[in-house]
Design a protein that fits this description.
- The structure is a homodimer.
- Chain A is α/β, with parallel strands linked by helices.
- The first copy, chain A, has two domains: 3-116 and 289-301, 2-Layer Sandwich (Nucleotidyltransferase, domain 5); 127-285, ATPase, nucleotide binding domain (Nucleotidyltransferase, domain 5, 2-Layer Sandwich).
- Chain A has nine helices and twelve strands.
- In chain A, strand 1 (3-9) and strand 2 (14-20) form a beta hairpin.
- The A-B interface holds A 130, 142, 144, 146, 151-161, 163-168, 175-177, 232, 235-237, 239-244, 269-273, 275-277 and B 130, 142, 144, 146, 151-161, 163-168, 175-178, 232, 235-237, 239-244, 269-273, 275-277.
Chain lengths: 303, 303
Amino acid sequence: MEYSIGLDLGGTNLRAAAVDRNGKMLDKVQGRTQYSEGREAIIHDMVDAIRVMRDRFGKENLAGIGIGVPGFISLQDGVIKNCNNISSLENFPIRDEIGRRLETTVILENDANAAALGEKWIGAGRDVNDLVMLTLGTGVGGAIISGGKVLRGVNGMAGELGHITIVPNGNPCGCGNRGCVEKHASATAIIAMAKLLGLGDNMTAKAVYDLAINGNPKAQMIFTSMGESLGIVLAMLINAFNFPLYLVAGGVIGGWDLFAPAMLEETSRRSFTYRLTQTRVERAQLGNEAGLYGAAYLPWSEI
Amino acid sequence: MEYSIGLDLGGTNLRAAAVDRNGKMLDKVQGRTQYSEGREAIIHDMVDAIRVMRDRFGKENLAGIGIGVPGFISLQDGVIKNCNNISSLENFPIRDEIGRRLETTVILENDANAAALGEKWIGAGRDVNDLVMLTLGTGVGGAIISGGKVLRGVNGMAGELGHITIVPNGNPCGCGNRGCVEKHASATAIIAMAKLLGLGDNMTAKAVYDLAINGNPKAQMIFTSMGESLGIVLAMLINAFNFPLYLVAGGVIGGWDLFAPAMLEETSRRSFTYRLTQTRVERAQLGNEAGLYGAAYLPWSEI
């Protein structure tokens, strides 16, 4: 039975899984290394996790190996150009080094793209070939699946939707822009708005959510504001792509009931394409497994 | 020698051309009908213009017939759903009716998409497979070419870039939104800004341009403002697509020297992808022939 191996280099640790052609996870293993131990330890751990899966299910049925990593990836070189979370991996030929140690080729992909591919394969997007996904976390990640494949652009940098301007003079962003959607509609933005409204200095997004569902009007305003910001960027994306499905992912979608009404109202106001067509804006379904499934799907995705 | 026939239903009249596989125009003919004469007259004229070309170059070498029309097109039905300029053509099976009279199939396409396809074929985009085009006229039209083909979306409504929000509380638009780029960076927007600045009530965009090149600071501000607005939307598009080329088209590009510096500065500030990559923002090259060439290219474009 054909299977593939996916590896997801997540925010705090890595996981590898063996998945069959129908999307059934056969087995999963977690890395043990702290990222702070540096590049060699991380790469050793990645190779190790993949080997464990391959030894268990055999080389003869292995369709391929896909790896999802954070940051901007140069697909031509198989290099992570910029990775804020794990800077030790930057500008190193990680794809070829892992391939050398495993004595095979591996496919490298941005983690947001891998997650969208996972949702397209067996998650909320399994009935469509075209979707856009926004992942709300510390920042806002984006990914575009067009014709069943990741839209990468010429440098593999397509889908940087978190840095789309939604307010020309909005909050400043480390990318050099002002008013990026990720500065107005991420977990970080929720916390910053809570501080601006005097709700507290070190709140979590979850704590702001709890205030809101318990009726705190300032906390509710924050989710309304976040929803409006998302609506602006969703309307843009719908006008540009006219795809059937737009997914919102990330831990913050736990607050869906609080921000979705404002989001959909704003989307409707700002996009006649949304009003005229059967466009769906929905929650992603695979949670933090999406990237793992998507990485495993990589060997099959470009067929 | 293989050739194809393209027909462009333009703002004031229609043109048909026979074009060979290399993009050489073999001949061209112009329709005679006023659009105000109604649907039957227009369709008769379209069929007539195509027949003239086909009679001249023969059926045996004809690769196909492409037709570019303004408005939103339902590709499945071959129907123009919404066409402000020629409302008599709305919700009529125009593709099938023309095909019936010509006893062959014809390909219908939105005129902005056809123009982008023309630029991709033999114009400013002939060395790339992926580009985005913004056409600045009365409104702002948009088109996306991805992998050498028009990105249509699920309803054929992709590329409605003129209605992307660039200022959340900007000028109101007939589409129901506020702050659409076409209300801040079109010929109409130039005229409206001139009125707001007290330059005159019934100026043309060209007259505002003439004031600006003669040193009028208010007129210059208008082009700077327009450039900044275009920069916001270009930065978004570059972040989303990471394509190699973004074309600006339409009569207003005569003012390129006045608005391009602010446009490119704003694009650079708002898109790290632009700053990090070899992204080109350039003028289209084919003028109002782009749609005619693109229509002729339609029969070859989906191969």
